[in-house]
Amino acid sequence: MIEVTQEKHLATIVEAAIAKHGTHADAYIPILLEINNNFGYIPAEAIRLARAKLHQPEDHSLVSEGRLYGLASFYHMLSTQKNGRHTVQFCESAPCHVQGGRELWKALQQELQLKSGETDPDGRFTLKTVSCLGICGVGPVILVDNDFYGNVTPEDLADIFAKYE
Q1: Residue 110's CB: how many other CB atoms inside 10 A?
Q2: In the chain, which residues have pLDDT < 70?
């Protein structure tokens, strides 16, 4: 259960996101993104609070917790799980794969001692795979937080991760 002070802060963030983006269906993803950016993930309580504010039968605006959770769990830029301070995303698309992605993936897992979806014990890194990061010409590619790295080799990893505390 979320502590009372955290719950108040969470409610303030949810209300501000809804006030900023509105209550229509096309605002759901920006609202969830705003919550995610504030907390590093979307707590289950935030989905409940958002649904309570967004579900307005009198205006024919109907939304379920399941729909919001579905959006939050579908898009890779959103997370329903608490992540490490830094999120490492590995592109597993075919262009990256043929340019050395398989070897890089093995080295990534070894360097971080993580499998996809895991966070290290000290909460520094979370490792995720994504189907495409959209910069196929410089594969293999990883994204650490908002920093793209292209043409990455296993030998580059230690220097890349040293930049992130």
Answers
A1: 11
A2: 1-8
